[in-house]
């Protein structure tokens, strides 16, 4: 019975082919627009996530003392002056971080409280000196570009960009000079706080970290060495009772727990941030972007829906007597509704399938064009938080789910647009319909 | 078409079980904001196998009576039962099924689907009866063959003459083999010669197949084919009599127009 009615619906569709193709064409354009615009946000988001780098940085949370400011909630929204005691990163507090569920490692950091300069022959450079407990190095989650991750004696580890930021002080213009710090002779010069004295140390770089993380401009030294240097710089001996860490790196056990660990740290009154938060923000951003662009495509689909509704209304007007006749020879209201709804649905399906085909075609076209485009001409996309070099020739990404979603959307557009005209056809009284001229 | 006109067929109507019964039927329409009573306390009984003509001038309510009996419309009050089934008690779906199974309709302007060929038009009731395509085609071919239309199976209505179109419509009416054929001005759009052949065909269905036939017309020449003549005026039955030894039909010069 259903298939008999279905073939009748197909026959009805094919009798006005030009109109069918124009109406389905509208659905095609709408479907293509929805798919391509959403696929664009997927491509950009993939690129952005790739740009964040190793997944290890996604579980890393940087904890800072609050310096008199108390951050409310996540994401750094409202900032409120705190009257209460400011939580500090003292030894006991940092030790308590281990008790937060989902924490894999707690790595306290001591920063140099003054100035350091690196000298290699005629060139000078800088870097942020941080002291780390050498035993905790494996928990940093970094991989080495050169050498090994080891802090012993005068051997230090540097971030990926430290060696690329040397300069010639004699030169008129500033030009960054890249040195291979593993082989270049290196001295470190430390100034004390009132600038009355300096000390120089011969040092040896034992490892360079792969760039693309939070250590790019860092110089890692053993913690006790940095503590000694800070005593020299400030002229004050270390007091274990008042000592606080500059910051603490907390590593969550997984990407999923990162958010809850961050939240727990903020509840304790600390300032916590990291790539995990950035990723959350990024996802929010792309979620919004997807809604906006999807909405633009949706408008095109809405216009197509009116086209379908119009076509169905016209078809029903033209075929009023036929509807009356169908009822006179035994068709129920439901049969009539089914035939017309199916016609509308098939317009949607036809447009949807064609739209998916066109979208896949355009995907290939765009991605191929992008892959072959000369580099350095993509500045137009700089407003996006995306490293365009990370696109990997995939600006437009259509996952199968998106194609299926679009097909379902196009079909429901057809059905919904056809609903009112079809109901009207089904509810028509037989005699009135028959007598319509 | 070897149709035998047998005017003494009244004997065949000996089966007096009523197939159609109407009791105290009223029907009102609202036209231009004013209620109009189209049928007023109409009662009639039609036995199985009778050939009835309902006659009356335009606006007398004769077509409305046919639509009510055929289940195309519902009465405002009164009882209509066909083959011991009360139409008033039926749901919309039941009524649709009743129309499909028990009644074959023939209309003045044929109402063929212009995009379907003769075969598909005849087979259309089978779509809603849930018959397979093979069954439908087989039955339609047979029916069109019996009406001498075998060489027109794949012709569209626009490629057929008026008489041929009405024959396709009659074949369609016969498709589900209904006991009752209801015709609304079946010759109204045909010239008198073609109209005569259509009436002879109906007469044949009556005498040879025992169909109950109800024809609405305002043309006496058409009514002559019936055994019984019901005259309607202003929504009421004015006259109801048997016209058994009906005289042969005269050639009519008048071109009948729509009701």
Strand content of chain B: 25-35%
Instruction: Quote the distance from N terminus to C terminus of chain B.
Output: 29 Å
Q: What composes the largest sheet of chain B?
A: 6 strands, mixed
Most extensive interface, chain pair and sizes: A-B, 26 and 30 residues
Category by helix and strand content of chain A: alpha+beta
Going by helix content, strand content and strand pairing, the class of chain B is: alpha/beta
CATH superfamily of chain B: P-loop containing nucleotide triphosphate hydrolases
- Please state roughly what percent of the residues of chain A sit in beta strands, choosing from under 5%, 5-15%, 15-25%, 25-35%, 35-45% or over 45%: 15-25%
Question: What number of domains of chain A?
Answer: 2
Shape of chain A: elongated
Which percent range fits the helix content of chain A?
40-55%
Low-confidence stretches of chain B: 1-14, 246-259
Bulk shape of chain B: globular
Mean pLDDT of chain B: 87
Strand order of the largest sheet of chain B: 6-7-8-3-9-10
Distance between the termini of chain A: 30 Å
Strand segment count of chain A: 14
Largest sheet of chain A: 12 strands, mixed
CATH hierarchy: architecture of chain B: 3-Layer(aba) Sandwich
Mind explaining what this structure looks like?
The complex is a heterodimer of chains A (437) and B (259). Helices cover 47% and strands 17% of the residues of chain A. By secondary structure, chain A is an alpha+beta fold. Chain A has 2 domains: 2-53 and 281-435, no CATH class; 57-274, no CATH class. In chain A, strand 2 (69-71) and strand 3 form a beta hairpin. In chain A, helix 2 (17-52) crosses helix 8 (333-372). The longest helix of chain A has 44 residues, at 275-318. Chain A is elongated and about 110 Å long. Residues 70-83 and 377-383 of chain A have low confidence and may be disordered. Chain B is globular. With 259 residues, chain B is an alpha/beta fold. Chain B has a single domain, classed as Rossmann fold (3-Layer(aba) Sandwich), CATH 3.40.50.300. The two termini of chain B are 29 Å apart. Chain B has helices at 62-69, 92-102, 118-129, 133-146, 162-174, 192-209, 220-223, and strands at 18-31, 34-47, 51-55, 77-82, 85-86, 103-107, 180-184, 212-217, 228-233, 236-242. In chain B, helix 3 (118-129) crosses helix 4 (133-146) and helix 5 packs parallel to helix 6. Chain B has a 6-stranded mixed beta sheet with strand order 6-7-8-3-9-10, with helices on both faces. Chain B has a 4-stranded antiparallel beta sheet with strand order 2-1-4-5, with helices on one face. Chain B contains 7 helices and 10 strands. The A-B interface holds A 1, 4-5, 7-8, 11-12, 15, 321-322, 324-335, 429-431, 434 and B 67, 70, 72-73, 92-93, 96-97, 99-101, 105, 107, 111, 113, 115-116, 124-133, 172, 175-176.
């Amino acid at each position: 019975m259903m298939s008999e009615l279905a073939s009748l619906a197909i026959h009805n569709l094919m009798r006005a082919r030009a109109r069918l193709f124009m109406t389905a064409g509208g659905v095609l354009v709408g479907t293509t627009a929805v798919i391509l615009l959403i696929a664009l946000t997927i491509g950009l988001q993939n690129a952005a996530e790739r740009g964040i780098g190793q997944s290890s940085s996604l579980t890393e949370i940087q904890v800072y003392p609050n310096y008199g400011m108390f951050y409310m909630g996540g994401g750094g929204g409202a900032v409120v002056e705190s009257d209460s005691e400011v939580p500090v990163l003292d030894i006991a507090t940092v030790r308590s971080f281990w008790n937060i569920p989902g924490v894999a490692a707690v790595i306290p950091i001591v920063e140099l409280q003054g100035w350091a300069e690196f000298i290699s022959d005629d060139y000078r450079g800088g870097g942020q000196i941080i002291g780390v407990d050498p035993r905790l190095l494996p928990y940093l989650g970094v991989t080495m570009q050169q050498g090994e991750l080891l802090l012993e004696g005068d051997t230090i580890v540097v971030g990926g960009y430290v060696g690329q930021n040397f300069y010639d002080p004699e030169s008129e213009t500033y030009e960054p000079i890249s040195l291979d710090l593993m082989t270049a002779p290196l001295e470190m010069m430390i100034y004390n706080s009132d600038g009355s004295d300096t000390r120089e140390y011969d040092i040896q770089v034992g490892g360079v970290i792969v760039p693309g993380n939070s250590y790019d401009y860092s110089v890692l030294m053993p913690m006790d060495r940095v503590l000694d240097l800070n005593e020299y710089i400030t002229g004050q001996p270390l007091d274990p009772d008042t000592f606080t860490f500059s910051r603490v790196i907390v590593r969550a056990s997984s990407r999923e727990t990162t958010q809850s660990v961050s939240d727990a740290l903020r509840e304790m009154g600390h300032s916590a941030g990291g790539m995990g938060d950035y990723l959350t923000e990024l996802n929010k951003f792309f979620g919004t972007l997807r809604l906006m662009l999807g909405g633009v495509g949706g408008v095109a689909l809405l216009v197509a829906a009116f086209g379908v509704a119009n076509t169905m209304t016209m078809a029903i007007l033209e075929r009023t007597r036929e509807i009356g006749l169908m009822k006179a020879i035994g068709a129920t209201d439901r049969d009539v509704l089914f035939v017309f709804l199916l016609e509308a649905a098939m317009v949607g399906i036809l447009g949807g399938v064609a739209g998916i085909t066109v979208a896949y075609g355009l995907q290939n076209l765009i991605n191929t064009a992008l892959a072959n485009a000369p580099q350095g001409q993509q500045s137009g996309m700089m407003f996006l938080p995306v490293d365009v070099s990370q696109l990997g020739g995939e600006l437009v990404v259509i996952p199968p789910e998106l194609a299926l979603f679009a097909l379902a959307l196009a079909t429901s557009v057809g059905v919904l647009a056809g609903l009112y005209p079809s109901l009207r056809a089904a509810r028509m009284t037989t005699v009135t319909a028959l007598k319509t001229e | 078409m070897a149709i035998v006109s047998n005017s003494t067929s009244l004997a065949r109507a000996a089966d007096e079980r009523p197939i159609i019964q109407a009791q105290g039927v009223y029907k009102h329409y609202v036209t231009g904001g004013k209620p109009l009573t189209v049928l007023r306390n109409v009662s009639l009984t039609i036995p199985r196998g009778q050939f009835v003509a309902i006659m009356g001038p335009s606006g007398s309510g004769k077509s409305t009576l046919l639509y009510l009996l055929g289940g195309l419309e519902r009465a405002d009050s009164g009882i209509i039962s066909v083959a011991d089934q009360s139409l008033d008690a039926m749901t919309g779906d039941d009524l649709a099924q009743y129309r499909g199974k028990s009644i074959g309709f023939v209309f003045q302007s044929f109402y063929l689907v212009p995009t379907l060929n003769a075969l598909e038009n005849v087979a259309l009731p089978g779509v809603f009866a849930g018959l397979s395509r093979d069954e439908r085609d087989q039955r339609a071919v047979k029916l069109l063959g019996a009406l001498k239309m075998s060489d027109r199976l794949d012709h569209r209505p626009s490629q057929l003459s008026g008489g041929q179109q009405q024959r396709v419509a009659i074949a369609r009416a016969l498709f589900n083999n209904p006991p009752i054929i209801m015709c609304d001005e079946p010759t109204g759009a045909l010239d008198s010669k073609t109209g005569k052949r259509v009436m002879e065909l109906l007469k044949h269905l009556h005498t040879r197949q025992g169909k109950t036939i109800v024809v609405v017309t305002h043309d006496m020449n058409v009514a002559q084919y019936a055994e019984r003549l019901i005259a309607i005026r202003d929504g009421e039955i004015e006259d109801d009599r048997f016209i058994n030894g009906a005289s042969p039909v005269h050639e009519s010069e008048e071109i009948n127009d729509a009701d």
